[in-house]
Amino acid sequence: MWLEGPWLEGRLLRRYKRFLADVELADGRRLTAHTPNTGSLRGCAEPGMRVWLRDTGDPKRKYRYSWELVEVRPGVVVGIHTGLSNRLVREAIETGRVPALAGYDTLRGEVPYGRERSRIDLLLEGPGRPACYVEVKNVTLVEAGVAAFPDAISTRGQKHLRELTEMVRQGRRAVIFFCIQRGDAVEMRPADAIDPAYGRALREALAAGVEAVAMTAAVSPARLELQSEVPVVCPPL
């Protein structure tokens, strides 16, 4: 996926009110940018971190600039725009980089389903096989090589796991896909210390037959692309 610019590079001053970030550019100018991420951005929003803002070019927006990339340590750039995760996963499936999800004829996004009035991120269908419901989760938290989700309490995430479990019970296929928008993870785990309820719900869903896939991404101001699958590990509680 090519990332549209132009880009402005700077240093993060602070992230606040969840959707706002103050950034100082190299020329000394200070801008307030929109933050397209509802999570805590734990480990990705420390003052002084190198960041990139995308100029939307839209004068009607209250905040014209969008904070989308951050360098958490030298050489490790993280994509924080949660809205790109579905596109990333869709691109990877369509180009054959997710063997577990290969062989379907059609792929649709944002399809209504479930008892709790949800929308599935991606629905894969093909003759002679059960429909496959794919729920995508954007992951930015990595500590000591271990990616973790969520980075804040996620009751919505628990609902999605219940919906996926119900699809399996109805004879369909269901997948939770962890889209890790950075390249330094070697495995994926539930963030039990942050949201133990989500960790329990994930384990229950996997035990019921929901599948889990996790992939890391190559991230730069030019391109964002899923590259490597990593194991999903759920240690006993």
Helix-strand blueprint:
Elements: E1 7-16, E2 20-25, E3 30-34, E4 50-55, E5 65-73, E6 76-79, H1 85-94, E7 106-113, E8 118-125, E9 132-139, E10 141-143, E11 146-149, H2 155-169, E12 173-180, E13 187-190, H3 196-207, E14 211-219, E15 224-230
Parallel strand pairs: 9-12, 11-13, 12-14
Antiparallel strand pairs: 1-2, 1-4, 2-3, 4-5, 5-6, 7-8, 8-9, 10-11, 14-15
Helix pairs in contact: 2-3
Provide key terms for this protein:
six-stranded mixed beta sheet, OB fold (Dihydrolipoamide Acetyltransferase, E2P), 15 strands, 2 domains, Trna Endonuclease, Chain: A, domain 1, 3 helices, six-stranded antiparallel beta sheet, alpha+beta, 237 residues
Describe this structure in words.
With 237 residues, this protein is of the alpha+beta class. The chain has two domains: 7-79, OB fold (Dihydrolipoamide Acetyltransferase, E2P) (Beta Barrel), CATH 2.40.50.580; 82-230, 3-Layer(aba) Sandwich (Trna Endonuclease, Chain: A, domain 1), CATH 3.40.1350. Helix content is 16%, strand content 42%. It has three helices and 15 strands. The protein has helices spanning 85-94, 155-169, 196-207, and strands at residues 7-16, 20-25, 30-34, 50-55, 65-73, 76-79, 106-113, 118-125, 132-139, 141-143, 146-149, 173-180, 187-190, 211-219, 224-230. It has a six-stranded antiparallel sheet with strand order 3-2-1-4-5-6, with no helix packed on it. Strands 7-8-9-12-14-15 form a six-stranded mixed sheet. Strands 10-11-13 form a three-stranded mixed sheet. The model has no long low-confidence stretch (mean pLDDT 96).
